[in-house]
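Note to self: the last two entries modelled the partners one at a time, which told us nothing about the interface. This time every component goes in together.
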Amino acid sequence: MPLSPDHQAEIDALRGSPAQTLRTVAPGMEKHLYTAQPVLDHGFVRVIDYMGDDAAICQAARVSYGKGTKSVTNDEGLIRYLMRHWHSTPFEMCEVKFHVKLPVFVARQWIRHRTANVNEYSARYSILDREFYIPAPEHINAQSEVNNQGRGAVLDGAEAARVLEILKADSARCYDNYEAMIAQDDQQGLARELARMNLPANIYTQWYWKVDLHNLFHFLRLRADVHAQYEIRVYAETICDLVADWVPFAYRAFADYRMGGAQLSATGLTCIRRMLKGETVSQENSGMSKGEWREFEELLSQG
Amino acid sequence: MPLSPDHQAEIDALRGSPAQTLRTVAPGMEKHLYTAQPVLDHGFVRVIDYMGDDAAICQAARVSYGKGTKSVTNDEGLIRYLMRHWHSTPFEMCEVKFHVKLPVFVARQWIRHRTANVNEYSARYSILDREFYIPAPEHINAQSEVNNQGRGAVLDGAEAARVLEILKADSARCYDNYEAMIAQDDQQGLARELARMNLPANIYTQWYWKVDLHNLFHFLRLRADVHAQYEIRVYAETICDLVADWVPFAYRAFADYRMGGAQLSATGLTCIRRMLKGETVSQENSGMSKGEWREFEELLSQG
Amino acid sequence: MPLSPDHQAEIDALRGSPAQTLRTVAPGMEKHLYTAQPVLDHGFVRVIDYMGDDAAICQAARVSYGKGTKSVTNDEGLIRYLMRHWHSTPFEMCEVKFHVKLPVFVARQWIRHRTANVNEYSARYSILDREFYIPAPEHINAQSEVNNQGRGAVLDGAEAARVLEILKADSARCYDNYEAMIAQDDQQGLARELARMNLPANIYTQWYWKVDLHNLFHFLRLRADVHAQYEIRVYAETICDLVADWVPFAYRAFADYRMGGAQLSATGLTCIRRMLKGETVSQENSGMSKGEWREFEELLSQG
Amino acid sequence: MPLSPDHQAEIDALRGSPAQTLRTVAPGMEKHLYTAQPVLDHGFVRVIDYMGDDAAICQAARVSYGKGTKSVTNDEGLIRYLMRHWHSTPFEMCEVKFHVKLPVFVARQWIRHRTANVNEYSARYSILDREFYIPAPEHINAQSEVNNQGRGAVLDGAEAARVLEILKADSARCYDNYEAMIAQDDQQGLARELARMNLPANIYTQWYWKVDLHNLFHFLRLRADVHAQYEIRVYAETICDLVADWVPFAYRAFADYRMGGAQLSATGLTCIRRMLKGETVSQENSGMSKGEWREFEELLSQG
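The predicted structure of the combined assembly is written out below.
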């Protein structure tokens, strides 16, 4: 349960105070505003604010393309056209602001997406709470043997238990010592900006994260992908659900063209054309390396 | 009068359709939504949407700095502190979207500010309207003799009249020929993407421009400055007025610390310290070049 | 012939003055340094400086992925892997700086790519030269009838001649009047920042443009594409040739995965899987709109 | 001593292999290439590559401002002019790439500067080394009592010793357990992407960091500032020394106008004008808050 009673009361107050606006309102997003969507054991994602909706994407596109977009008779068709042809700027006209609570090692991956605005809780100024991510047993996996990154099978019970014990004990001890170093009773107390270095990467931090829809889609394509680390993927999936309610046309186009689609190389396209003509194509005569051919075969056999 | 009756009717309809929202509402901005603020002879600036207000800046800052910001007892004090100490990320948490109609030569300066989202009317897809910026006689100036950029005195009546005649005649002729080239009656009609090259830089274009408050302040500091070209400055000044109503605390801090303030060099600071001790400082013993000293003297004698 | 004798002498001097460096040197790029590659009637692209080569991309990837990249036995294989899996940051480790001379209407398209550094010749400070883009007759096309943007057939001789006459006459007259307005003999002379508004969009400007390889590839994918306007495409194609000599492995991977490849939607992938199983798929049972199906069929039948 | 013999041999080999180039060469930077500048107990900064020099800044400015810059008779004067008047784009024409080894908590501050390219060592793919930042006793300070961020007095010997003992013991234990979890002898071995969460924020990571000179100056102004945390400031200071050798004119202008200068508010400027006229100005009649007045007085009394 990630929310304190105070925090919940604040959310209830915000949700109980509607106001009038002349701006575009997205009903699918209004219903989610401020509410904390739980993620992992102590994390959450909350929508704090948003700008625009599906119609705002079309409005911007029609400024750009003028009469050229009149021939597309409906908004969903236009949005699909824009997504298919990489017209990214109309999607930049929507913006969303999240409040996210997340483990530091997830935050470190997340921040690599640079085209966004961030205000993170500062451990130079303030004292971090005693909250650590401890994976559920079913998410404790072995190192993958085929993939230098990524996970293999779930660890067996005894080894998973041993890992859990280590993670819990080290988190607790490091936090005890963090507190002991900054304590201010009869000693001077270490500066917070120094004491924080004793805290492991599974401690939770939080931030406000604001991003436009185009860059959010880019983030989601990489982080909601099956190859992304589980601990960031669950945040991305939570955000996918929110975006699907906010801009349903744009989200469906994204799901079809980006998340569920695939980028084929010129070589791959040529192979497909040959196969459709009835030719037997194998790795040897494909022009692809073994690794690339394996990925290509998987792509064609899915579903 | 920049608006067609259709456009005005659309604005009236939008302004007549309030809806409920749970988001932060900035009353000072609601009153401006959609309305066209006239700029130059055919241009305008309209607020299409916004996200956040003064309180949203503080909210983001308090996430970052936690209890550290509790000691600042009020929002305006906190916002002034943030502005003074270059804490820029909380200001990035506000966003605004404008619809702007502007001459192409102004658009070319404006677009150099890269941290913003833009959808411009496309002359590849659509036909531009016959609207050109023709300066008022009081804004037709000679080349400055002291400044390689910038304007000198207003041209005298006869020369100004000659300039106006040229600008009007060339605009009209170029547009007539633009129309003649794309006409589709008994000839094939030149592609729009080619025909547009015949149009001079005082033709009007329009775009949606979306930017966060931090980057907007940066734009305003440079473009509302007295050294900016008049034709972009009037857009920046119009936006200043809108921002002052949207986020009054942030705008006042910006006006005090950025617009009205000045960056002093180490050398300049040393000179001021010497002067305050009663020493007579001149260009010769200041450590500054002549040009720099002239700017320094102007700074100290203003007001 | 775009270069003045002075400019050519400067290039010869620069090319005649090699120096020693400890930095990575890309021989394929050294041979192009400073030389002007002609584009259109008066334009050019020149490489002014570069940082990195194929090995620098691998070096950065190996910092990131550590031992994970050791299993890829050669640099080209690693670069193809990075491109295929959208690992964009190693490509950002290469940088290139161009000097480009181009018509203003091309510059207006180009500048929409915001992740780059630009210094453009300023018509506020300086006087533009009398150089205008006048298309060759074989590039004067009618408006496309099937595509709201883009060109159709080449205009027939008489109409093309009429267009050329208009473009030449209007360019000349506008420039004559530009000169007349800024002339400083017996009149005050209009400020340059105002006079420039009389110049049409086919006048040439120039700039320094600096960009990293990842963002350059993004630019090239859009602007060297067959759907890009001819006048910017020729610049992109010229740059493609330079990049192919600079980072041959990266360029080949880009050509295979991006330029020659295609993004398939989930719907499109499903159709291909059905077709490969022998099913007859038509637009009606494809799940695609007519426009999308037409693009899909073209993709599968090319080559 | 942060370098392994292998690493040192690699550096020696690179430094022993000069090549010819036609590019601009900055002799002051060539002497630093590849060499590791030690920072903190195990960190370093190394220049891997650079593009441009002082002359390249002027070259770009002269493209922009054309004849307008001819009146500035020398490069240093022009560079000072550009810096004083916030003409930032010419400085963007220089680029530098560093290899940096740094504690994770420093990396987390550093990465907030988004306009840069980064490739970081990935603990998903690879195993981190057993290297932790343990502060020297003279850098172990108490929490500041006047400043919510920042440090107060150096801790006394006994308390500093206690802190050091904690940091060392927790680092060692966490790393032992990290190793134990990923070990692959008779157990399956936890995935690296999970095991890394047990590592505290004083473990060292490394990255390639590439940035243009304008954005580097912005980073240095904030991070070489006296208010920056010591552990990032020493990196910034090391980089300052490298930049001073690379682009001496630009660095001196930066030191004078940015590092050593100050931003005065409109209110502050007015106070200075009043004081120079002989008026006695106090906080009460200054128009400033107490905190702001204190900062203002400090500024005027320094040196």
